[in-house]
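User: I'll paste a sequence; please echo it back and then give the predicted structure.

Assistant: Echoing your sequence first, then the prediction.
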Amino acid sequence: MRKPLSKSYELVSGLLKNRILFLDGAMGTMIQRYKLQELDFRGEQFKDHRIDLKGNNDLLCLTRPEIITEIHTNYLASGADIIETNTFNANMLSQSDYELEHIVSELNQAAAQVARKAADNFMAQNPDRKCFVAGALGPANKTASISPDVNDPAFRGVTFDKLVRHTMSR
């Protein structure tokens, strides 16, 4: 028995039959324009974290959600039909650089909520527009396909087994 399609899928499919849908742009580039400091990334929740957090853009969904909301809204106002969650590095392997593997689920949930709220608020102010949210998946910060050491082409920054463990862990 075939699973029924979601209402959003049917709506997007219908729109695609009539026009091109536009996806937002680079979140990281937009975040850089704010010239954020360490305290912006830490917020109250991570004020005592022992490792620097500046550059962990996914964390801003928890510590500075108003910035991420503003970026989403600007993309929608510029014509984007689909905004992506701010989750490019919201995976266990990437968050291990910050010792924040334990908040990966929280990061992904917060990013989805921020994006959904931005889309809903935008549509409430622009009832003629339909806006969608897509989950963003970026590459991990380590690769199993290319050596980070030009002097050792066989070396890998991460093993396949570790990638699987970090992907399958919750």
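The beta strands are 82-84, 132-134. The domain at 7-139 is CATH 3.20.20.330 (TIM Barrel).
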